[in-house]
Design goal:
Blueprint: H1 2-22, E1 25-29, E2 33-35, E3 40-46, E4 51-54, E5 61-76, E6 79-92, E7 96-100, E8 104-107, E9 110-113, E10 117-122, H2 134-141, E11 142-148, E12 159-167, E13 172-180, E14 187-192, E15 200-204, E16 207-221, E17 225-229, E18 233-245, E19 251-261, E20 265-269, E21 285-294, E22 298-299, E23 305-315, E24 331-333, E25 337-345, E26 348-361, E27 365-369, E28 373-378, E29 383-388, E30 392-396, H3 403-414, H4 447-475, H5 477-498, H6 503-522, H7 531-540, H8 545-561, H9 568-588
Parallel strand pairs: 2-10, 21-28, 22-30
Antiparallel strand pairs: 1-3, 3-6, 4-8, 5-6, 7-10, 8-9, 11-12, 12-16, 13-18, 14-16, 15-16, 17-20, 18-19, 21-23, 23-26, 24-26, 25-26, 27-30, 28-29
Helix pairs in contact: 5-6, 5-9, 6-8, 6-9, 8-9
Length: 590
Amino acid sequence: MKLIKHTYLLLIVLVTSIASAQVKFDAKVSKQKLGVNERLRIDFEMNQDGDNFNPPDFSNFNVVGGPNQSVSNSWINGVRSFKKTYSYFLAPKSRGNFTIAQATINIGGETYKTVPINIEVTAAVEVPKDPNNPDYIASEGIHLIAEISKTNPYLNEAITVVYKLYVSPNIAVDNWNELDSPRYNDFWSQNIDTQGQKVQNGTFKGEDYRFLVLKKVVLYPQKTGKLEIEPLSLDIALRVPSNRRDIFGSVLMTRTNKVVSAGNSTITVKPLPEQGKPLDFSGAVGNFTFDVTPSKKELSASESLQLKVAVKGNGNLKLFKLPKVTLPSSLEVYEPEHKEEVNTTLAGMQGAISDSYTIVPQFKGKYPIPSISFSYFDLKTETYKRLSSDEIVLDVLDGPINNANANSAAVANNGKQPVVLNKDQFAYIKTSTNFESVHSTTFFKTTTFWSLLLLPFLAIPLAIVIRNKKATRDADVYGNRIRKADKLARKYLSSAKKSLGKKEAFYIALEKALHNYLKAKLHIETYELSKERIDTLLTEKQVDAGVVKDFFSILESCELARYTPIDIVTMQEDYEKAAKTISLIDKQAR
């Protein structure tokens, strides 16, 4: 009997302790730092109903609202969920650091207390914030953050920008629209797919939040110095809690819209060191391996082989050129086929790029392919490294012999030129002829004779007409200036026009044409081609500001187009705009 009695007592104690452990009574504030002219909301929440609720003494605050009481009951899968809340709205009486003391309540015969909360009250803010204002609640509970992996990278070193949207638990987001996408000027950029991202739990400035990754971008800076990363802006439709409640005591939500931005960010790009930079360095930055492999080393003449030059690794694979192959002149070589197998992740570009050369030997013999070198800047050691391939010997087994090479070898070995005999060496002497008699004709007084005689006299009126038109055209000063300007534009832009359809070659030629034109027109050197200097000189020559602006926009297009996809229609438009702008500058310049 005693054993059974003690067992019952133990069960009662366990049940009581479990029930006590499940009771929650917490105090939550809208913020822990506010201005003296702002308002503070505090909620006392419990998950079981209780009696004798006793709020703390708000001695350092004026109670401007409350207590508001709300109760919610719900059943989910047969499990009851209960929440009861007492809410107060407080106005601080003065600046300082204050503590909101414990509140108490009696639940199931036990007294429960909240944890004291520290509040910092600062000087008045510019705009008083009302905790009941939906815009204020949205601004306090919605944050768009741009996380940048590195703010001081090297030129052509990969950095990542991750955009996260943080949302307070008491705010519901319906949808959002992208108002303004950042344009990554002076960067090569690649977006990373973020579809299927799930909402995650996290903290923001020490408070609990939910967040969603909206966008991931990999950037490779193409200039040194301070570069701006433009902000991402969103228009968000959301619902925030109000101070009104329905008949069941649940808080009513208010719909509102909020525009948030990630804010401008600045990074400082370091130039690659000059010390130890190889002469053949083409801008490769990262960690790479280098291979030169032929598809076969033994073949017959007129057969083809593939010589593959490949770079593999992690780095700016799409932003540099592979080294060229130097081959003997007796090997016929075709333009290489460029191939890229590159995957861009948050770690940057990874994969391989290669050039495949098709080689066709014409004659029998052995042909050495010299060693090929590739240099890159290693980010881990911050030094330049060089990789070189082994010499490759191609053995052409069957085919005609190159006589020029054979004769040269004979002269080199014996010092004498071999004599080649031909049994028909006297065949050029003719022993018979097939001459035919030629009948002469008289040219005098023929139709051709009289036509040629009268032609100079008939040309005199035509010459007079041409001379008069030339004089009229010479007197047309404005027209001559237009024609001269158009001719000058065509002259400088001729090489660019030939490259239409080839993006990189076209924009390099276009930029070179614009620079050469300015150097000739303004009598300046290359080192003087700064934006400020050009603007000053063109303004002094009375060129319209709009024309100057168009000129600079074309230069910016040339620079931007190297790192973004461009179609032939855009190239044609840029060409026509450049020709028009050069023509206008030449006409307006005094």
